[in-house]
Amino acid sequence: MTRPESKSLGKRNCPPSHQHLKKSIEGPPKTLRLPQLCKLGGDISSVLIVRQESPWNKYRPALLCDIAGEVIIATHRSNPSRLRAVREYPKADAERLIQRFGCLDHANILSSRDCYIDANSMYFFVEDLPLTLWNVVSSPDIYPTELELAAIMSQVSLIVSIFVDELTDKVLDGLCYLSGFGLTHQTLSCGKILLGTNGRIKIECSPTETHTIYANTIPGITMALMQKHEKDVGITGVNDLNRWPVDSDAFGFLSAASTESIESLRKHHLVAARNQPTEDLVMLARAVL
């Protein structure tokens, strides 16, 4: 057996060293503003970051939707698969809007952590909630079950109780958690109540100088969900007693909604035991999407 000739091994050539390229960023320095925050509790995730620049330098507006108000669906310019929901407000309301989004943190009120300000407007990047309760009402063959109705109304009644004094059914004064933000919601209807695919219900609140009482909207919202329409003003009830028997918790809640206070309604058996109501709405949200 012959031994193969050994090949001389030359010195291994080292790859050229990486050249470090400097990236030049043009334009004026970006200004970040962290407003005074309320009730942070040490959670940095609740900080509102305000940028003094147009959001359209980084994002591109793609769709304009009406989802409880106008919502711009924007795509990231360098990564179009990243979608963001944006709500635009007049710059004249800047102080109140920054206070409202920077200080108010409630599970059932629309929130934001990113804000852009240009010459005329403010743009708040909010949660992308693609539905409202009107999507449920307007779906002809989809009715919520009693469990789903309970999950909806437990969250809606909580929203109403934020604005309404549980003892007097009058709008809360300066002692109210929200009164310092000057918040109101001119109309509370199915078309103004947002529904996320995770089952979370929220409303969008705009800062104004006054408050509005809307505890009496609970019967109308409940009727619309139960039978796709409301009855004449002052009349409460449902037509299909096979779907909603008179001895059901849903019918009892509807009857009580026209006469009892929001404090009493929140103790009603239909909604009182709903500890995690969002989980009960995931399938309903998927069905009407």
TrEMBL record:
InterPro entries associated with the record: Kinase-like_dom_sf
Region (Disordered): 1-28
SUPFAM superfamilies on file: Protein kinase-like (PK-like)
Highest taxon, organism lineage: Eukaryota
Name of the protein in its database record: Protein kinase domain-containing protein
Organism of derivation: Penicillium nalgiovense
